[in-house]
């Protein structure tokens, strides 16, 4: 299908729920944010690590541009997820909080929950594993019905990303 | 409506026909290209002047990225239009042809026809006047039904442009 | 004088010694690096904070370009100094080590020693205070004789920086 | 020697005189500009073609940055030379004049004189041939004594160019 989107039918499984240990930049009145709460909206899930150069130079600036370009669309939710799978001691929530402040990242950012086996035995956090992400940055698009429609790894072109989001937006809400 | 697009109804007039004196990069078998021939497709009309820095640094590279990002979409036509309204003697078709070759611009490019009153009396070429363009670069989007849906002047963000094109693509063909 | 350099005479005081608590990327056989050990060489001292966007996007890439452009010059030493004056808990040596590794920064980097009064009472580290730096990133040039010749704050142009370093290189060694 | 400069001795031949058919942006009172008139100054000779993308995107913006970075140095002269060796009919002085105006190029620019054999038999202009330039853009550095000290082809790093110019500036005037 167009713009690297899977078709809205059976080929697109429901997006797995997120497992998070903490959130930043939540809207007033929230102390967490579940995927289900966003049902009916197109979700742009940007996963990153604060010390990953590809995230800092490409992924996060693009996520900020997406948040700005679609700011007028209530139907689009831009969400960040800090999926630390290396240098765990170097990227704690204390460091992340200062990073988000200094880089002026204003959209909600969750901290992906560490493996229940412990990071020493399994360095990948839970949501990253559920979504089978290849690394950071990854850009995940979820449609209004909660289906996983696109997962991209690495630098992506703005034109194609904008086209993919708009294509999901144009799909009927009750599809 | 979304992404600076006018609504597909009465607010969107039919796009005026183009008046051209010459074409470059036409598909085999064509010696010109009329708007009517592209009915049913989404048209991205990029107007420029070869000596306009905003066109060279921003507009044309974006048009090339659009052509590449939507290369797989038969329903999208990227068309250039050389709308010379100043320095007429400096931007002749001879110079334009070398410019297109050197900058590796491969999509069809028409030369906007000079005013019938003569450029000395009216420097604006005919199509530029019909579309009421403010200058160069301008990016014009025309929907499948031939309606003018968006006219932008100056540098534009890739995300919004990609979203606008995809929104037109998602509209039903017979609308 | 040229390129924002002070004159080599009385107007240029000796550069203060550095106070560091730790080093990364030291040459083999060193466990620290003092200013005096570099006497006779032109010193490019780049001060930064790992979570400062101006450092990440402009300062550090420039320092890396400097290290590369002058790689053939034994007479030039590029040195980094991590001058943390805010978010102290977020920019510990553990985080810095991962940051340097991920961003492929290979030149020696010292950690500026915290204030003896404690960062709660005086957030500025010792070397930053001695050099009266205004913030991060700052680029400090020290001549062969150990004199402070230029201190710049914020983004600087490569041409002027390259010219300033070469001007110091062209000064006689025993001046 | 440093920064791709040849040594100032016998290895550096006198720079050949320029052969020009026309000038733009000359200082008041000049109707041409010969190499000899600039003796005693460091000359940055930027050769380009107005339809060469490498010139438009890299070479000319760098030449403009050089002119700005060294604006306070009476001892530095930035000179452009339009060395057309292809698409001759597309890059006439009429087109060049509009190009310089639109791109806000303010330093003096000469038009390299066409081959005496005619461009059909020898497409390379005279100065380009005398300097044995490989193409456009090329950056030529000439020292205070009129010696050719560096000839670079293609994109060059600002740091190294700034360092090379400053090195020539630091050489004694009567050397």
How would you characterize this protein structure?
- 4 copies of one chain form a homotetramer.
- The first copy, chain A, is of the alpha/beta class and 175 residues long.
- The first copy, chain A, has 4 helices and 6 strands; from the N terminus they run E-E-H-E-H-E-H-E-E-H.
- Chain A has helices spanning 53-69, 93-102, 126-130, 158-170, and strands at residues 20-24, 42-48, 76-82, 109-112, 138-142, 148-153.
- The two termini of chain A are 17 Å apart.
- The model of chain A has no long low-confidence stretch (mean pLDDT 95).
- Chain A binds chain B through residues 2-3, 65-66, 69-70, 72-73, 157-167, 169-171, and chain B through 2-3, 65-66, 69-70, 73, 157-167, 169-171.
